[in-house]
Amino acid sequence: MKISECFLALERLLNGNPIKIVGPYKINNDTVAVEAGYPRGSIKKYNPTHELLIKNISENYGKKFKSSAKPHKKLKDQQQKIKTLQTDINDALGREAMYIKYILELEAALLKTGNVVPIK
Question: Where are the domains of the chain?
Answer without folding.
Answer: 3-65, 69-120
